[in-house]
Amino acid sequence: MDQLLTGIHQFHTNVFQHEREFFTKLASQQHPSALFIGCSDSRVDPSIITQAELGELFVLRNAGNIVPCHGASNGGEPATIEYAVSVLDVKDIIICGHTGCGALQAMLHPDRMTNLPLVRGWLSHAEATRQIVAENYGQYSGSELLDIAVREHVLVQIENLQTHPAVAVKLQRNDLTLHAWIYRMETGEVLAYSSKDGGFASLTELAPQEASKRNVANHRRARKSTSKKK
To answer: How many Å apart are CA 199 and CA 180, to the nearest integer?
Structure first.
Protein backbone atom coordinates (compact mmCIF):
# COMPACT_ATOMS: atom_id res chain seq x y z
CA MET A 1 0.00 0.00 0.00
CA ASP A 2 2.85 2.39 0.76
CA GLN A 3 4.09 1.99 -2.80
CA LEU A 4 0.65 2.78 -4.19
CA LEU A 5 0.31 5.90 -2.04
CA THR A 6 3.73 7.08 -3.14
CA GLY A 7 2.66 6.53 -6.74
CA ILE A 8 -0.43 8.69 -6.23
CA HIS A 9 1.71 11.57 -5.02
CA GLN A 10 4.14 11.14 -7.90
CA PHE A 11 1.30 11.10 -10.42
CA HIS A 12 -0.28 14.25 -9.09
CA THR A 13 3.01 16.14 -8.85
CA ASN A 14 4.98 14.87 -11.84
CA VAL A 15 2.26 13.94 -14.34
CA PHE A 16 -1.07 15.64 -13.66
CA GLN A 17 0.36 19.07 -12.88
CA HIS A 18 2.54 19.05 -16.00
CA GLU A 19 -0.33 17.89 -18.25
CA ARG A 20 -3.19 19.78 -16.58
CA GLU A 21 -4.68 21.02 -19.87
CA PHE A 22 -4.88 17.47 -21.23
CA PHE A 23 -6.50 16.12 -18.06
CA THR A 24 -8.95 19.03 -17.88
CA LYS A 25 -10.10 18.33 -21.43
CA LEU A 26 -10.31 14.60 -20.71
CA ALA A 27 -12.43 15.23 -17.61
CA SER A 28 -15.20 16.75 -19.72
CA GLN A 29 -15.54 13.99 -22.32
CA GLN A 30 -14.22 10.67 -23.57
CA HIS A 31 -14.01 9.32 -27.11
CA PRO A 32 -12.34 5.91 -26.93
CA SER A 33 -11.90 4.18 -30.27
CA ALA A 34 -12.02 0.63 -28.92
CA LEU A 35 -13.47 -1.55 -26.19
CA PHE A 36 -10.79 -3.81 -24.76
CA ILE A 37 -12.10 -6.90 -22.97
CA GLY A 38 -9.34 -8.62 -21.03
CA CYS A 39 -8.49 -10.65 -17.98
CA SER A 40 -8.15 -9.22 -14.47
CA ASP A 41 -4.69 -10.80 -14.19
CA SER A 42 -2.30 -8.23 -12.69
CA ARG A 43 0.31 -9.05 -15.34
CA VAL A 44 -1.96 -8.08 -18.23
CA ASP A 45 -2.42 -4.32 -18.59
CA PRO A 46 -4.23 -3.20 -21.77
CA SER A 47 -2.72 0.28 -21.79
CA ILE A 48 0.82 -1.02 -21.42
CA ILE A 49 0.39 -3.76 -24.02
CA THR A 50 -1.07 -1.33 -26.59
CA GLN A 51 0.74 1.79 -25.35
CA ALA A 52 -2.61 3.56 -25.38
CA GLU A 53 -3.02 6.97 -23.77
CA LEU A 54 -5.73 7.83 -21.26
CA GLY A 55 -9.07 8.11 -23.01
CA GLU A 56 -8.18 5.85 -25.94
CA LEU A 57 -9.46 2.54 -24.54
CA PHE A 58 -12.72 1.65 -22.84
CA VAL A 59 -11.76 -1.33 -20.70
CA LEU A 60 -13.71 -4.29 -19.36
CA ARG A 61 -11.76 -6.79 -17.26
CA ASN A 62 -12.83 -9.88 -15.37
CA ALA A 63 -11.46 -13.29 -14.42
CA GLY A 64 -10.86 -15.15 -17.67
CA ASN A 65 -11.86 -12.35 -20.10
CA ILE A 66 -15.34 -13.86 -20.23
CA VAL A 67 -18.25 -12.43 -22.22
CA PRO A 68 -21.46 -14.16 -21.11
CA CYS A 69 -24.06 -14.64 -23.83
CA HIS A 70 -26.77 -11.99 -23.90
CA GLY A 71 -29.24 -12.64 -21.09
CA ALA A 72 -26.99 -15.12 -19.27
CA SER A 73 -25.62 -12.67 -16.71
CA ASN A 74 -26.87 -9.69 -14.73
CA GLY A 75 -23.32 -8.48 -14.10
CA GLY A 76 -21.60 -5.42 -15.49
CA GLU A 77 -20.41 -7.05 -18.70
CA PRO A 78 -23.54 -6.60 -20.86
CA ALA A 79 -24.07 -3.02 -19.63
CA THR A 80 -20.44 -2.11 -20.37
CA ILE A 81 -20.64 -3.60 -23.85
CA GLU A 82 -23.92 -1.85 -24.61
CA TYR A 83 -22.61 1.51 -23.39
CA ALA A 84 -19.36 1.21 -25.34
CA VAL A 85 -21.14 0.34 -28.58
CA SER A 86 -24.33 2.41 -28.38
CA VAL A 87 -23.16 5.53 -26.52
CA LEU A 88 -19.40 5.78 -27.02
CA ASP A 89 -19.69 4.42 -30.56
CA VAL A 90 -16.47 2.43 -30.44
CA LYS A 91 -15.43 1.07 -33.83
CA ASP A 92 -13.46 -1.93 -32.59
CA ILE A 93 -13.90 -4.52 -29.84
CA ILE A 94 -10.88 -6.53 -28.78
CA ILE A 95 -11.17 -9.68 -26.69
CA CYS A 96 -7.72 -10.49 -25.38
CA GLY A 97 -6.77 -13.73 -23.65
CA HIS A 98 -3.31 -14.48 -22.31
CA THR A 99 -0.95 -17.37 -21.76
CA GLY A 100 -0.87 -18.95 -18.32
CA CYS A 101 -4.42 -17.85 -17.51
CA GLY A 102 -5.34 -18.98 -14.00
CA ALA A 103 -9.07 -18.84 -14.69
CA LEU A 104 -8.73 -21.27 -17.58
CA GLN A 105 -6.46 -23.51 -15.56
CA ALA A 106 -9.27 -23.71 -13.01
CA MET A 107 -11.76 -24.36 -15.79
CA LEU A 108 -9.68 -27.31 -16.98
CA HIS A 109 -9.35 -28.64 -13.40
CA PRO A 110 -12.72 -28.10 -11.64
CA ASP A 111 -11.47 -29.94 -8.55
CA ARG A 112 -9.38 -26.87 -7.74
CA MET A 113 -12.54 -24.82 -7.20
CA THR A 114 -14.05 -26.91 -4.40
CA ASN A 115 -13.73 -24.04 -1.92
CA LEU A 116 -14.37 -21.29 -4.47
CA PRO A 117 -18.11 -21.45 -5.19
CA LEU A 118 -18.27 -17.96 -6.69
CA VAL A 119 -15.36 -18.66 -9.02
CA ARG A 120 -16.97 -21.96 -10.02
CA GLY A 121 -20.23 -20.15 -10.75
CA TRP A 122 -18.52 -17.48 -12.84
CA LEU A 123 -16.56 -20.03 -14.85
CA SER A 124 -19.80 -21.78 -15.74
CA HIS A 125 -19.95 -19.11 -18.45
CA ALA A 126 -16.88 -20.81 -19.95
CA GLU A 127 -18.55 -24.21 -20.15
CA ALA A 128 -18.59 -24.12 -23.96
CA THR A 129 -14.81 -23.71 -23.97
CA ARG A 130 -14.39 -26.58 -21.52
CA GLN A 131 -16.48 -28.92 -23.66
CA ILE A 132 -14.73 -27.94 -26.89
CA VAL A 133 -11.34 -28.64 -25.33
CA ALA A 134 -12.45 -31.86 -23.64
CA GLU A 135 -14.04 -33.34 -26.76
CA ASN A 136 -11.55 -32.22 -29.40
CA TYR A 137 -8.14 -32.06 -27.73
CA GLY A 138 -7.96 -35.12 -25.51
CA GLN A 139 -4.49 -35.98 -26.85
CA TYR A 140 -2.97 -32.84 -25.30
CA SER A 141 -2.06 -32.08 -21.69
CA GLY A 142 -0.24 -29.60 -19.47
CA SER A 143 0.86 -26.25 -20.84
CA GLU A 144 0.10 -27.30 -24.41
CA LEU A 145 -3.53 -27.99 -23.51
CA LEU A 146 -3.77 -24.69 -21.65
CA ASP A 147 -2.46 -22.79 -24.69
CA ILE A 148 -5.12 -24.47 -26.84
CA ALA A 149 -7.79 -23.64 -24.26
CA VAL A 150 -6.74 -19.97 -24.24
CA ARG A 151 -7.12 -19.75 -28.01
CA GLU A 152 -10.41 -21.64 -28.18
CA HIS A 153 -11.73 -19.60 -25.30
CA VAL A 154 -11.15 -16.21 -26.89
CA LEU A 155 -12.97 -17.42 -30.02
CA VAL A 156 -15.93 -18.65 -27.96
CA GLN A 157 -16.12 -15.21 -26.33
CA ILE A 158 -16.19 -13.60 -29.78
CA GLU A 159 -19.20 -15.82 -30.56
CA ASN A 160 -20.84 -14.85 -27.28
CA LEU A 161 -20.22 -11.18 -27.99
CA GLN A 162 -22.18 -11.44 -31.23
CA THR A 163 -25.33 -12.41 -29.28
CA HIS A 164 -25.52 -8.93 -27.72
CA PRO A 165 -28.10 -6.86 -29.61
CA ALA A 166 -26.09 -3.64 -29.73
CA VAL A 167 -23.13 -5.53 -31.18
CA ALA A 168 -25.26 -7.47 -33.67
CA VAL A 169 -26.79 -4.26 -35.02
CA LYS A 170 -23.42 -2.57 -35.54
CA LEU A 171 -21.96 -5.68 -37.15
CA GLN A 172 -24.87 -5.88 -39.55
CA ARG A 173 -24.17 -2.28 -40.58
CA ASN A 174 -20.42 -2.91 -40.87
CA ASP A 175 -19.87 -0.22 -38.24
CA LEU A 176 -17.94 -2.47 -35.89
CA THR A 177 -14.95 -4.77 -36.15
CA LEU A 178 -14.13 -7.62 -33.74
CA HIS A 179 -10.63 -8.74 -32.84
CA ALA A 180 -9.46 -11.89 -31.03
CA TRP A 181 -6.02 -11.47 -29.45
CA ILE A 182 -3.72 -13.55 -27.29
CA TYR A 183 -1.04 -11.83 -25.21
CA ARG A 184 2.02 -14.04 -24.73
CA MET A 185 3.51 -12.98 -21.40
CA GLU A 186 6.73 -14.88 -22.04
CA THR A 187 7.63 -12.96 -25.20
CA GLY A 188 5.55 -9.77 -25.11
CA GLU A 189 3.93 -10.73 -28.42
CA VAL A 190 0.30 -10.26 -29.29
CA LEU A 191 -1.23 -12.91 -31.54
CA ALA A 192 -4.27 -11.96 -33.61
CA TYR A 193 -6.84 -14.26 -35.17
CA SER A 194 -7.96 -13.85 -38.77
CA SER A 195 -11.10 -15.37 -40.25
CA LYS A 196 -9.36 -15.48 -43.63
CA ASP A 197 -6.83 -18.13 -42.64
CA GLY A 198 -8.51 -19.43 -39.47
CA GLY A 199 -5.43 -19.01 -37.29
CA PHE A 200 -3.41 -16.72 -35.07
CA ALA A 201 -0.33 -14.75 -36.14
CA SER A 202 2.02 -12.41 -34.28
CA LEU A 203 1.16 -8.76 -34.91
CA THR A 204 4.76 -7.72 -34.28
CA GLU A 205 5.97 -9.89 -37.15
CA LEU A 206 3.54 -8.42 -39.68
CA ALA A 207 3.69 -5.20 -41.64
CA PRO A 208 1.27 -2.60 -40.18
CA GLN A 209 -1.07 -2.79 -43.17
CA GLU A 210 -1.24 -6.58 -42.97
CA ALA A 211 -1.61 -6.57 -39.19
CA SER A 212 -4.57 -4.19 -39.39
CA LYS A 213 -6.45 -6.68 -41.56
CA ARG A 214 -6.30 -9.50 -39.00
CA ASN A 215 -9.78 -9.41 -37.55
CA VAL A 216 -12.85 -11.57 -37.13
CA ALA A 217 -15.35 -11.55 -39.99
CA ASN A 218 -18.10 -14.12 -40.54
CA HIS A 219 -16.55 -15.87 -37.56
CA ARG A 220 -18.99 -18.72 -37.19
CA ARG A 221 -18.39 -19.90 -40.76
CA ALA A 222 -14.64 -19.30 -40.89
CA ARG A 223 -13.54 -20.88 -37.63
CA LYS A 224 -11.09 -23.77 -37.73
CA SER A 225 -9.15 -25.81 -35.18
CA THR A 226 -6.52 -23.74 -33.40
CA SER A 227 -4.27 -26.55 -32.18
CA LYS A 228 -1.76 -26.40 -35.02
CA LYS A 229 -1.74 -22.68 -35.58
CA LYS A 230 1.06 -20.41 -34.41
So the answer is: 10
**Top-tier CATH class for 33-222:** alpha beta
Burial 48-67 (b: 16+ CB within 10 A, else e): ebbebeebbbbbbbbbbbbb
Query: Domain locations in the chain?
Result: 1-30, 33-222
- pTM score, whole prediction: 0.90
Given a contact cutoff of 8 angstroms between Cβ atoms, the answer to whether 147 and 191 are in contact is no
Q: Give CA–CA dist 171/150, Å, rounded.
A: 25
Q: How far is the C-alpha of 98 from the C-alpha of 145, rounded, in Å?
A: 14
**What does the pLDDT average to over 126-136?**
96
Q: DSSP string of 22-69? A: HHHHHHH----SEEEEEE--TT--HHHHHTPPTTSEEEEEETT---PP
- The values of phi and psi at residue 27, to 5°, are -65, -25
Rounded CA gap, 9 and 16, in Å? 10
Q: Is-contact 41 65, C-beta < 8 A? A: no
Mean pLDDT along residues 39-53: 96
